[in-house]
Specification:
7% helix; 12-stranded mixed beta sheet; 9-stranded parallel beta sheet; 722 residues; mainly beta
Length: 722
């Protein structure tokens, strides 16, 4: 979390208390003693659908009604039977447009192919059969009824994704309304924690929503610094898109026809957030305003004409954007995105089947990957034949078996407990999560190695997943074995919308070496939040320092690694440690650990340097270039005498360059004493900026040997393919 300076330290302390007021971690819900097992089979040759189910109710026939969607306005009776099976010989033409309610006594179950494929945490909407406000009303009911609207939502294990089928005959999903999305009159969809909205059309204009709002829950509804973990993609927002968010929030492949502001206009003062990320989006009528946001990364987005600033306080990076703000202290326009592959997404193809679109790699791109009529370059994969669709309850056993069989993995929303790492060990394998699906080392203690291991293979994609650890582990996610040497320039590895979370919820002490290590060459990272939690259900301050242990957020040993939108916070040593050559990072947001108890426990380079730099390029590196770097001092769980010498540290080398660096202090007595290599000034004087540092006059850091994970970390039963 990143927090904006407010008038007093007391107010900031109150914020931390509000963020921390959550119950002890527990699983959401319990399985019913008797579970009704249902099944549905589609006979393509006969175009018939057969239902079967286990017995329920006390007496009488089972009555079967059918609707075109789960929430269809009309269900018609198609049969009645005393048996536990029924065949519908005249279903609706599209096999997925057949939802059956089976009722006996006062009990009703719903059976459909979509439910059977995707489970119960994915919700599908079809305007052909539903009223305009049906989807909006259900999503908002979820927001208000299951904890997603309040601070408790931060730690729930509930996950959900809301998918909208393409509009037909000029219909939309807009219930109507006016004004800013945060107002009652707007009738906006409110999207809560661990929730995802996706359009099932080929292009964003195929699904039209009204207004969308993400409601902050702190400080009277004006503070969005804990509004995490939600996403949207492949839809059009017709009226107002008020994306009032902070870290681990993703808006992609969107058309935004109107927007009032990015930050909430509810509450009584001081609207602020710590976001965020948007990419591949098209604003058609008005330039948005990020007012109140501390920083933001925007990629390959088109804005209406103009070059004026669009809000934001410290670090705004605009990469490959059309009509971006002109460069100034806070704004860093970058003309093109050097290498990018957009995140894969689920859609329904012209043949009525579920597919996954895997976009192609592009180089030096400005603007969108799609148009009004063209979904862009890429490959289409059939979901049912080329993918394994997980459901909550699947473990590493089922997932690794499917990967070994050549399947890609679509994670439906859920909380997946692992006894061993997910092993991505073949070329072009894909892991794709929906609804902020989490892969978690919980509740057993057999897996002490990590959540995901990816081998050194071409074209691997890992996207839309949260890595969590309730046990000690070496890594949370590791890309390529130590010493990986393969050249993936023709088909890089993509990591997209990745969150790693350390601490905050588990009851015991955990020890982790690194949240993420990238050993492979030619890896592209497109939006990370690597977070050692600064608040949660357990005690903070000094107690957190010895209880939630993690040295590094990210270690990069591979060459030619390019990262976009890197958020890394609160780790206990170098938060980003770069050892590979020709690395590039476009945008960094960082806060140091709040909770270092004293300077002696938080000093680097053999105890000679106070604190650890947020972004460290090792002295051995000969070539590196990064831009748009922010590190913000918040030292609150300390003895009052903890400082950090440098926000950033790099070798004084002619081909190692950092541009547009910013440091300031948000709260607490401690300071970042220099921006980079002993230059740029202390946060005791306010905001400090260094436009560029390259082979400068500052002091080069001491040479040092870094403590890195090694092969002894591997579990014996995991075999790395060569």
């Amino acid at each position: 979390m990143c927090t904006k300076a407010i008038s007093t330290f007391t107010a900031f302390t109150l914020l931390l208390m509000l963020c921390s007021f959550v119950p002890s971690y527990s699983s959401d819900g319990k399985k019913q003693a008797h579970q009704i097992v249902d099944r549905i089979v589609y006979n393509k040759k006969k175009h018939s659908i057969t239902l079967s189910w286990s017995a329920f109710g006390a007496s009488g026939n089972y009555v079967i009604t059918r609707g075109g969607s789960r929430l269809a306005a009309d269900f018609v009776q198609v049969g009645s039977t005393s048996r536990l099976t029924f065949t519908d010989n005249k279903p609706n033409t599209d096999k997925y447009e057949n939802y059956y309610k089976i009722t006996r006594d006062s009990i009703t179950i719903i059976v459909s192919l979509e439910k059977q494929i995707f489970g119960s945490n994915m919700y599908f909407y079809d305007r052909k059969y539903e009223n305009a406000g049906t989807a909006r009303n259900e999503i908002n009911a979820h927001f208000s009824s299951i904890g997603l609207g309040g601070p408790n939502g931060e730690w729930t294990t509930k996950r959900q994704a809301y998918y909208f089928k393409a509009n037909v005959d000029g219909q939309t999903y807009d219930v109507g309304g006016s004004g800013s999305a945060s107002s009652a009159a707007a009738n906006a969809i409110e999207l809560g924690f661990y929730s995802h909205i996706g359009g099932l059309g080929k292009v964003p204009s195929a699904v039209k929503l009204g207004a969308v709002f993400t409601r902050p829950h702190l400080s009277g509804g004006a503070n969005a610094t804990c509004t995490f973990w939600r996403s949207m993609e492949n839809v059009t927002v017709m009226r107002d898109f008020s994306w009032t968010v902070s870290q681990s929030t993703s808006a992609r492949r969107m058309q935004i026809e109107s927007t009032s502001k990015y930050i909430s206009d509810i509450g009584n003062s001081n609207f602020w957030g710590s976001g965020g990320f948007i990419a591949d989006a098209n604003y058609t009528s008005s330039r948005p305003n990020w007012g109140g946001q501390q920083q933001w990364y925007t990629r390959n987005t088109v804005f209406p004409s103009g070059e004026g600033a669009m809000g934001g306080s410290y670090n705004m990076v605009w990469q490959g954007c059309v009509n971006a703000p002109k460069a100034d202290n806070a704004n860093s326009p970058v003309p093109a995105t050097p290498v990018i592959r957009e995140k894969p997404f689920l859609f329904i193809d012209s043949d009525g089947e579920y597919k996954v679109f895997v976009p192609a790699w592009q180089k030096d791109r400005a603007g969108l990957s799609w148009s009004e009529t063209d979904m862009g370059k890429g490959k289409v994969q059939d979901l049912l034949t080329e993918w394994y669709v997980t459901k909550e309850g699947d473990t590493d056993v089922e997932i690794n078996k499917a990967l070994k069989a050549g399947k890609n993995i679509f994670f439906t929303p859920g909380h997946y407990s692992l006894n061993a790492p997910i092993q991505v060990n073949r070329k072009e394998a894909i892991l794709l999560g929906a609804g902020i699906a989490s892969v978690t080392l919980e509740p057993t203690e057999k897996n002490t190695w990590g959540c995901i291991y990816a081998d050194d293979k071409d074209g691997i994609i890992i996207a839309g997943l949260l890595m969590d650890s309730f046990n000690s582990t070496t890594y949370q996610i590791r890309i390529g074995n130590e010493g990986a040497k393969a050249d993936h320039a023709a088909n890089p590895i993509l990591l997209s919308d990745i969150t790693c979370r350390v601490g905050g919820v588990q009851s015991k002490n955990i020890q982790i070496h690194a949240s993420m290590q990238i050993n492979s060459n030619n890896v592209v990272g497109d939006h990370f939040w690597l977070w050692r939690a600064d608040h949660g259900s357990q005690r903070g301050g000094d107690a957190r320092w010895v209880r939630d242990r993690c040295k590094n957020g990210l270690i990069v040993t591979g060459n030619d690694v390019t990262l976009y939108a890197l958020f890394a916070e609160h780790y206990q040593e170098y938060e980003v440690l770069w050892l590979g050559e020709r690395g590039r990072t476009y945008f960094l947001q960082n806060e140091p650990p709040y909770d270092a108890p004293n300077q002696a426990s938080w000093s680097s380079q053999g105890g000679r340097v106070p604190g650890y730099a947020a972004f460290k390029v090792a002295n051995t590196v000969k070539e590196h270039h990064s831009i748009g770097m922010g590190s913000y001092a918040v030292f609150t769980g300390t003895d009052g005498n903890v400082n950090k010498k440098n926000g950033f540290e790099i070798p004084n080398s002619p081909n190692v360059i950092l541009e547009k660096m910013c440091t300031t202090r948000f709260a607490g007595p401690g300071n970042i004493l220099n921006v980079i290599n002993g230059t740029g000034g202390s946060t005791a004087t306010g905001v400090n900026r260094v436009a560029s540092y390259n082979n400068g006059t500052g002091t080069q850091p001491y040479d040092e040997t870094f403590d890195l994970p090694n092969k002894t970390s591997y579990p014996a039963y995991i075999v790395m393919e060569k």
